[in-house]
Specification:
412 residues; alpha/beta; Peroxisomal Thiolase, Chain A, domain 1; 2 domains; eleven-stranded mixed sheet; 12 helices; 15 strands
Length: 412
């Protein structure tokens, strides 16, 4: 026996829209949020495009006395997404539920490189005695989770997960596990990253992991498409409110979906790269007591890098066999870019909205399939469909893989 875990609140800041309505509208329309970099002067960079969160002011979410502009950008984004999620869940931790333990689990991948880079330049320009004292706290990987936990005003715990791109979905899975085991009744979890900094963008470009399609930014992120040269780096934050089913029903909360299966595994066979993703899909489906034929939609990793896209399709074919031809698959990175640790939370929120609207979002900019990428990627436009069960895939640098199964809520 284990507690059922549901999502009752969601907050998102993404390059293609802030808030659920704007995010979903752009997904369905296939409107990309990728554009020229504005967060710094990128003229000398090989990659001069990225997915930036538009019109974001941290003072809209926190008072100036907190000195938010000294914080790392991903900390600002994570806190803002948390406030959105709590409002969306109609849950005020500090009022009627002050006695509950409310854990916070946030995934990060690149940490506070904007703070680190700025601090380094301050030291170079002004000397080591003139470096801002706030660098030491604001550059820490745990800063987003700790800020959220400190400001909740209730009993809480703060945990930070860093497992490359799967960090956000892994953080959600950790919180789900605590609720399932009965340790807590409610939790906040998600992921945030803000890698659009000079050093990070230069590093991704040198590694061949960011697109050089600077002339057409909105068409640069092209999952599973022959015209893609690589993915597009982006930023953002997604946070969800997780509750045990009993807790959610007791307070008459709106339920977006139920999380029923999860698995994470590293690639472990040099002769069979990416096989870890095959195993996480199999295990997540099995953990949910489902079969591949019961999956109605795959919200894929699909970063737009040709090698990674082809590999994911190969693993999907292994797991789904003949069912692979039937199930619709889409990558939202055509409009969001790759927000690293925020990718999994973005995909979870996408599935929740797809269940709500009975719509499969399209894979934006997918026109001519890569050789080996011949499945149903929902090209061109969104598709009406009755969705009951969806699979989420996330993969990261270093060979980490995570898959999660989510389902439309149904009372048993």
């Amino acid at each position: 026996m284990r507690n059922r875990v549901v999502v009752t609140g969601m907050g998102i800041l993404a390059p293609n829209g802030t808030g659920l309505k704007a995010f979903w509208r752009s997904l369905v329309a296939g409107e990309s949020g990728i554009g020229p970099i504005t967060l710094f002067d990128a003229n000398a960079q090989r990659t001069r495009i990225a997915g930036e969160v538009k019109d974001f002011d941290p003072l809209d979410y926190m008072p100036p006395t907190w000195k938010p502009k000294r914080m790392a950008r991903h900390t600002q984004l994570a806190y803002a997404a948390t406030q959105m999620a709590l409002r969306n869940a109609n849950y005020d931790p500090a009022s009627d539920h002050a006695l509950e333990l409310l854990p916070v689990c946030i995934g990060v991948s690149t940490s506070a490189l904007d703070v680190i880079e700025k601090g380094f330049h301050e030291m170079q320009d002004r000397g080591p005695r003139r470096v801002n004292s706030g660098v030491v706290s604001n550059c820490q990987p745990q800063a987003p989770a700790h800020l959220i936990a400190q400001k909740l005003g209730v009993k809480t715990q703060a945990t930070t997960i860093s497992s490359a791109c799967p960090s956000g979905i892994d953080a959600i899975a950790m919180a789900v596990g605590r609720i399932r085991r009965g340790e807590v009744e409610i939790a906040l979890a998600g992921g945030a990253d803000a890698p659009v900094t000079p050093l990070t963008m230069a590093s991704f470009a040198s590694a061949g992991l960011s697109s050089f399609a600077n002339a057409e930014p909105k068409r640069a992120s092209r999952p599973y498409d022959q015209a893609s040269d690589s993915g597009v780096i982006s930023e953002g934050a997604g946070v969800v409110v997780l509750e045990s089913l009993e807790h959610a029903l007791a307070r008459d909360a709106r339920i977006y979906l139920e999380i029923t299966g999860y698995a994470t595994q590293m690639d472990d066979d040099p002769e069979d790269p990416f096989a870890g993703l095959e195993q996480t899909m199999r295990l997540a489906i099995a953990n949910a007591c489902r079969l591949p034929r019961q999956i109605d939609y795959i919200c894929s990793y699909g970063p737009g890098h040709p090698v990674l896209d082809v590999a994911e399709v190969k693993m999907i074919r292994r797991v789904f066999a003949e069912e692979a031809e039937r199930v619709p698959i889409s990558s939202i990175k055509g409009v969001t870019g790759n927000p690293l640790a925020a990718a999994g939370p973005f995909q979870l929120i996408t599935c929740a909205l797809a269940f709500q609207h009975d719509v499969v979002p399209p894979t934006a900019n997918h026109e001519t399939p890569l050789p080996g990428c011949d499945l149903d990627f929902v090209p061109g436009k969104a598709r009406k469909a009755l969705l009951r069960c969806a699979l989420i895939n996330v993969r990261g640098l270093g060979g980490g893989n995570s898959s999660m199964l989510v389902e439309r809520f149904a009372a048993e």
